[in-house]
């Protein structure tokens, strides 16, 4: 069994208009994943919507963890919180998340 | 590189009230994944939200494919469309999807 975390974002403000802003968010998140000590992280990816379906959100993050405790370490990591506070929170038009066992 | 498909659902009607209805949807999707010939499908999972965060959606599906063509085979598979039409579509309060390279 594993524990999966999914988030979709629709951007507002500069992130909705300038792809470079979203690339900056993705790069910051990828650096955090590469550099942080996150035991129990099995896989993680993020990316901009490919534009092949109408009505989609703009961006998604998917992480698979050993269990809910490993997810919580990721969720609460100070570098993750810093990126959310400085680069993500004020640019979120809509955010939808699910965590599930599996 | 891979191609990731993410969907979150918030249920309405009987699916919002009866966990067995959602279990039936999850079981049908899992049987489809197990039985169908889906070349280029790397991983697939779905599940009910774990209830550890406020404001979350109710259910999510995550699939990772070799590329967008492999995703399209999954998306358009007749058994997938049948499950969506018969068990999912009329129970969706809100649906948010993203497909991304990665």
TrEMBL record, chains A, B:
This protein's source sits in the domain of life called Bacteria
Classification via InterPro entries: Dabb, Dimeric_a/b-barrel
What's a Pfam family in this record?
Answer: Dabb
Q: Which Gene3D superfamilies match?
A: 3.30.70.100
Ranges for domain Stress-response A/B barrel come to: 3-100
Recorded hits in PROSITE patterns, A to Z, give: S_R_A_B_BARREL
According to the record, the signal peptide region is none
- This one is known as Dabb family protein
The species this protein was found in:
Actinomycetospora chibensis
